[in-house]
Design a protein that fits this description.
Blueprint (H helix, E strand, L loop, with lengths): L5 H10 L5 H13 L6 H10 L4 H8 L8 H11 L10
Helix pairs in contact: 3-5
Length: 90
């Protein structure tokens, strides 16, 4: 866990506003409820995730696309609050 300043949280929350309600809700909730207590690796992975296109993030969060790394899969699991199962992917 790495301390996070309120200014950075504000920036993260701003970047969570994606224009798609599903993404806005899931990403914002993660920042508000879990980001500060997350391991440093998850915090960095989340920052990187926010740089991805909306369609890519949407695919990961709604299990339409397989995240490319185990770290990102773990982060997505924390964001969605459910465990991934290989049968959930096309």
């Amino acid at each position: 866990m790495v301390p996070v300043e309120s200014q950075e949280l504000g920036k993260l929350l701003w970047h969570c506003r994606r224009g798609m309600k599903e993404l806005d809700v899931l990403l914002t909730r993660y920042v508000e409820e879990q980001f500060c207590g997350a391991p440093a690796a998850h915090q960095e992975a989340f920052r990187t995730l926010l740089e991805a296109p909306d369609t890519e993030i949407y695919g990961y969060l709604l299990r339409q696309r397989r995240p490319p790394t185990a770290l990102l899969s773990s982060l997505i699991e924390r964001i969605t609050g459910s465990a991934f199962d290989d049968r959930d992917y096309p």
